[in-house]
Design goal:
Elements (H helix, E strand, L loop, with lengths): L1 H12 L3 E15 L9 E4 L4 E11 L4 E18 L2 E18 L2 E20 L2 E9 L7 E15 L2 E12 L13 E14 L2
Antiparallel strand pairs: 1-2, 1-3, 1-10, 3-4, 4-5, 5-6, 6-7, 6-8, 8-9, 9-10
């Protein structure tokens, strides 16, 4: 009976299915093997990633399971040399699948390009607000590998407030092969979300 009670308690700590909504700011460090204007620059996302996440614990005692995420994701890039700098926002619809163990998870993401927006330009040190939209045809689908961890910071009867950390790196260029700039990036994201337990 004691063993059964302990197992039941552990299962309660690791529910079978959790659904959550989250938002997270991303910082990306970009590299390019071709274009020096894209090399070794960092940019903070112009808006947060917004995502819906589901986690299914296959083994509830060990909190081993699967995770899936659907997100509207943004990567900001810094392009330029010297005092000339243009920050561009790349928007994607991203699907993620992965595996979890305890609070940690690792996964593979696929991003379908939506749009490219030029947002801010510093020309010879003079800041200019610009808005220029592209339909996303210059962007390529992006595949990335990512790892993260999620921790509850406020636990209530109607849901939990979670904070999470995600580290990822792209495995393919953000731009199509015939575009002059080839762009890869590594990035770090801090998430805050609301999660409910179904059982």
């Amino acid at each position: 009976m004691l063993v059964a009670s302990l197992c039941h308690g552990l299962a309660q700590q690791h529910p079978g299915l959790r659904l959550g909504l989250l938002a997270g700011w991303r910082v990306a460090v970009q590299t390019s093997e071709v274009d020096g204007a894209l090399t070794r620059r960092a940019a903070l996302g112009m808006r947060p990633d917004v995502a819906a996440r589901a986690r299914w614990n296959i083994d509830r005692e060990r909190a081993i399971g699967l995770v899936g995420e659907l997100a509207w994701s943004t990567q900001s890039t810094a392009i330029g040399q010297g005092s000339t700098n243009v920050v561009t926002q790349l928007d994607y619809l991203v699907g993620v699948v992965g595996a979890t163990y305890g609070p940690a998870w690792i996964g593979l993401g696929y991003g379908h390009p939506l749009a490219e927006r030029v947002r801010v330009a510093n020309i010879d040190g003079v800041r200019q607000q610009v808005t220029h939209h592209h339909d996303g045809t210059r962007l390529a689908s992006v595949i990335d590998v990512r790892a993260g961890a999620v921790f509850p910071i406020v636990v209530t009867d109607v849901g939990d407030v979670d904070v999470g950390f995600v580290l990822g790196t792209s495995l393919s260029s953000a731009y199509v092969p015939n575009h002059p700039g080839l762009l890869r990036s590594a990035w770090f994201r801090v998430d805050v979300g609301w999660t409910i337990e179904l059982w």
